[in-house]
Amino acid sequence: MTFSKELWESGAAEVYAGIVRHPFITGLTDGTLPHSAFRYFIIQDSHYLRSYSRALALVAARAVDEDAVSMFARHAADAIAVEQELHSSLLGSLGLTSADVDSVGSGPTTTAYMSYLTAVCATGTYAEAVATVLPCYWIYREVGRELLKHSSPDPVYAEWIAAYGSEEFDAVVESVLAVTDRLGAEVGPGERDRCHRHFATTTRYEWMFWDAAYRELDWPV
C-alpha cells in the first residue's frame, strides 16, 4: 500500500464521505446554498489561502530535493495567485471587495486551521509538514470531481466548481501525492504515527471549514 493511500484510509475516507454529504456541498450543486454562506466561505478561504501559501513555503524550505523545493515554492506562489484572481472574480459576483475580506477577518475555524498548519510546518519534520498540507490538496480535488458530476444551476457556484475540478489542479495533486509516496519509504514508526495524526487533524479541519461556512460561524465573544 502506498503511503498516501495508507493516510487516506486511516484518516480521511470516512471524513470525506461526510464532506460530500454536507449540506454546504449539496447546496452548491442544487443551487439552494444561501449566497451569504458562500460569501462567508470565500472570505474565509481568502484568509486561509494567504496562510496556506506561507505553510507551503515552509514545506519548500524543509524539502530534501530540488524538485520538491521548486514544486512547493511554486505552489506557494500559486495559492496567492488563486486568492487574487479567482477570488477577485467571485468577490465581485457576490458584491464584495478585498476591503470587505480584510474588515471581516478570519473566523474561529479558519484561525485554528491556519495556526495548526503553520505550527506543524514550522516545527515538524519534512514528512510531517507534507502530511499536514496534503488534505487541502487532495480533498479539494476529490470534492471538485464530485461537484463536476453535477455542476450547479447557480452561475457563481458553477464558476467555482469548474476551477477546482480542472485537469490542471488534478495534475498538481498527483505531483504532491507522488512526493508523499516517496517519503513513505523513509519515515520511521514514530514519525509515521505523527504523520497520521497530522493528516487526520487537517482532514477534520477541512470538514469543519465547510461546516463553519454553512453555519456562518462567528466568534462567540
From TrEMBL:
Instruction: Look up keyword Hydrolase and say if it applies.
Output: yes
Alphabetically sorted, this entry's keywords are: Hydrolase, Thiamine biosynthesis
**Thiaminase-2/PQQC domain segment(s):** 14-215
For this protein, what reaction is catalysed? Answer: thiamine + H2O = 5-(2-hydroxyethyl)-4-methylthiazole + 4-amino-5-hydroxymethyl-2-methylpyrimidine + H(+); 4-amino-5-aminomethyl-2-methylpyrimidine + H2O = 4-amino-5-hydroxymethyl-2-methylpyrimidine + NH4(+)
Extract the InterPro entries matched here. Answer: Haem_Oase-like_multi-hlx, Thiaminase-2/PQQC, Thiaminase_II, Thiamine_Salvage_TenA
> According to its UniProt record, in which pathway does this protein act?
Cofactor biosynthesis; thiamine diphosphate biosynthesis
Q: What class of enzyme is it?
A: hydrolase
Q: Which domain of life is it from?
A: Bacteria
Its EC number is 3.5.99.2
Extent of the signal sequence? none
Q: What does this protein do?
A: Catalyzes an amino-pyrimidine hydrolysis reaction at the C5' of the pyrimidine moiety of thiamine compounds, a reaction that is part of a thiamine salvage pathway.
Q: What is this protein called?
A: Aminopyrimidine aminohydrolase
